């Protein structure tokens, strides 16, 4: 005869297992998700992702994700944001590609979730705050580096993905302010819509159209390495000076070998970390981190021959995975 207690215990254990599984699923579903949406794929955002990883370790009760957008357009970001709203994301940090055409979408997002901007702002939107660089000040910093590279003046060309982005316009503004009243002449700002092939074509055309071009400057992370390649391919390394932005590995290599004068670097690790932790503070009812002007400014610094080795080692460590 079978033991009647065994008959009772088996279903009870099965029921307990079902309850435990259901509880685990419920807990997983209860975890709120916080994301950072980029404006392009680049090492810059990989480093920001390391900052997110630090935030994740500190806040295991949240899901923290990096969303890399390869289509650097307002339409592409709009589709990404719509998808995130459908998913019920609790907090979003975004590097805005085209503030003028994104405000309506951003306001829709801000009505349903905690929204902040990072790297490139949309100050007319209802975003809660901006975390990142003072891009006008960073532009002035680059402008000072341009003047150092060209003490006797000369023609310069600037390259950027799109002038629709606030950070692009503000960096150009800062550079113009820094070179005003000098013999440095800006021939033009060339845009490429975040298309590397078009960016390289722009650079090659400039080298042909302006044989006396003295300096070329890339204002977004992927452009300075392309200038580096174009100048070397044209046999003008050392003759055409280069000043850049951000910390792409080829940019740092160019500084090491003397082809690039310097680069103005931001702190994307902090962008990522602060984006996640400040959104989480807000979700927990704490908005004390928001300054009166709603701008959390993370300082920039100049990397040149004197400090590139140390900085390169730091970046390699951050990019290891």
Overview of this protein structure:
By secondary structure, the protein is of the alpha/beta class. It is built from eleven helices and twelve strands. Strands 2-1-3-4-5-11 form a six-stranded parallel sheet, sandwiched between helices. A six-stranded mixed sheet has the order 7-6-8-9-10-12, sandwiched between helices. Strand 8 (213-218), helix 8 (223-233) and strand 9 (241-245) form a beta-alpha-beta unit.
Summary, kept brief:
This protein is an alpha/beta fold and 321 residues long.
Ranges where pLDDT stays below 50 over 5 or more residues in a row are: 1-28
Strand order of the largest sheet: 2-1-3-4-5-11
What's the story with the biggest beta sheet?
6 strands, parallel
E-strand count: 12
* N-to-C CA distance: 60 Å
Instruction: Give the DSSP E fraction (strand runs of 2 or more residues).
Output: 15-25%
State Rg: 24 Å
Overall pLDDT level: 90
Q: Work out the helix count.
A: 11
- What's the helical proportion of residues? 40-55%
Order of helices and strands: HEHEHEHEEHEHEHEHEHEHEEH
The 3D shape can be described as: globular
Structural class designation = alpha/beta
List keywords for this structure.
single chain, 321 residues, alpha/beta, six-stranded parallel β-sheet, six-stranded mixed β-sheet, 12 strands, globular, disordered N terminus
Layout of strands and helices, then pairs:
Elements (H helix, E strand, L loop, with lengths): L3 H27 L1 E6 L5 H16 L3 E6 L6 H13 L4 E4 L4 H12 L3 E5 L11 E3 L2 H15 L4 E7 L5 H14 L4 E8 L4 H14 L3 E6 L4 H11 L7 E5 L3 H8 L5 E4 L2 H16 L11 E3 L3 E3 L4 H12 L2
Parallel strand pairs: 1-2, 1-3, 3-4, 4-5, 5-11, 6-7, 6-8, 8-9, 9-10
Antiparallel strand pairs: 10-12
Helix pairs in contact: 2-10, 3-4, 5-6, 7-8, 9-11
